[in-house]
Amino acid sequence: VAEMGAATAVDLSYNASVNWVSLDGAVDSAGKPPKDPPPDTLPDNYYLDTLNVRPVWDMGYDGSGIGVAVIDSGVTNDADFAHLGLRVSFNANSNTVNDVYGHGTHVAGIVAGDGADSNGFYQGVAPGVTLISLKISNEQGMAYESDAVDAMQWALDNKDVFNIRVVNLSLNSLTPSSYHENPMSAAAEILWFNGIVVVASSGNSGGNEIYDTINSSPAHDPFVITVGAMDEKGDSRRKNDSVPTFSAWGQTYEGYLKPEIYAPGKDIYSVLSKSSSWDVDYPDRTVGGGEYFRLSGTSMSAPMVSGAAALLLQAEPNLTPDQVKYRLIQSATWVSGWKYLDVYAAVTTPTTESANTGIEASHLLWTGSDPVAWDSVNWGSVNWGSVNWGSVNWGSVNWGSVNWGSVSWDD
């Protein structure tokens, strides 16, 4: 990452060793909803029943022993986070590991909240996991792809220390690109090829003219699990659920259909960051005496799949990311033409088949100081331990911006 004038950037692009140069841009901000009075009683969250999570808990699986890294705007410590392992910041313009923006704490609560402040009423999918907060945004929610790559490298370097098996990315680049030219996608693949399941939100561009394309990182990467949102329609019955208009879907530039799987993403209550001003700015969304907050978006759907992956990995620790992806998708049920996550079916479906076999890895992994030797790759078991940061010529990649707009305020 470098700061330079436009003419210098053009000169740099002529260098024979440089493959790609582009802007490390700013983050798009979300709109503000009306300020209505909060409800008197705690509204229901239905997703634990919609996704058949409780029967898996009854089997003794709550994610214990599995590390889940949330790369986001940070996580503010809260009574609901009984297993908050470590908080690290990668944004040079932020002076705290707390979540001043508010997004990351909400996402973390969906993964790992234990409902302590609601007598267990608002719980996440895998309340026993070790939660790792990797903060990449400043206090206004601004983040860059370069920050996300830093956080992903940390996750790889420390995966054995915290048994990090899942990374959640509820964010989207603002710069349309091929996954072959995007650094966040290359970094996500490096995690994937080294045994870490990467889950990404599909984004909230479903309501505009490009609804039929998925061209933002990391959602467009064919290896990662990309998650779209479902509207539960106010109950836990699956058959009447549908995809809300904001949820992005479609083909990538390379023709891959995304997202592969869906989870609830409309009107989801989760932990409110006490470091944020969301309770003041949006009082109509605050419940439980200011402990919880309502959001919609694919940002809320992705951590449900991350939690499901953690439960599955607790049950079967030797599964590879490709096997986890296959299991989650193949055990999902068809609802209105879309694959809908079923956590109990995923844990109880006895298959070790792999997804992604034969998919071409990011071309950025073909360059760099230590490019991947493709003839040594074991596609069947995805033993990609030789894929490392040296595989990428980071000085030439596309540092586009990250979009926290995967929260849908209007909905």
The fraction of residues assigned to DSSP E strands is 15-25%
Overall geometry comes to: globular
| Average pLDDT | 88
Largest sheet: 7 strands, parallel
Tally of extended strands?
16
Share of helical residues: 10-25%
Strand order of the largest sheet: 2-3-1-4-6-7-10
**Uncertain residue ranges:** 26-38
Termini gap: 36 Å
What is the gyration radius calculated from CA atoms?
20 Å
Structural class: alpha/beta
Counting DSSP H or I runs of 4 or more residues, the number of helices is 11
Order of helices and strands: HHHEEHEHHEEHEEEEEEHEEHHEEHE
Can you give a write-up of this model?
With 411 residues, the chain is an alpha/beta fold. The chain is built from 11 helices and 16 strands. The chain has a 7-stranded parallel sheet, sandwiched between helices. Helix 4 (103-112) runs parallel beside helix 9 (298-315) and helix 5 packs parallel to helix 7 (183-193). The chain is globular. The chain starts with 5 loop residues before the first helix and ends in an 8-residue tail after the last strand.
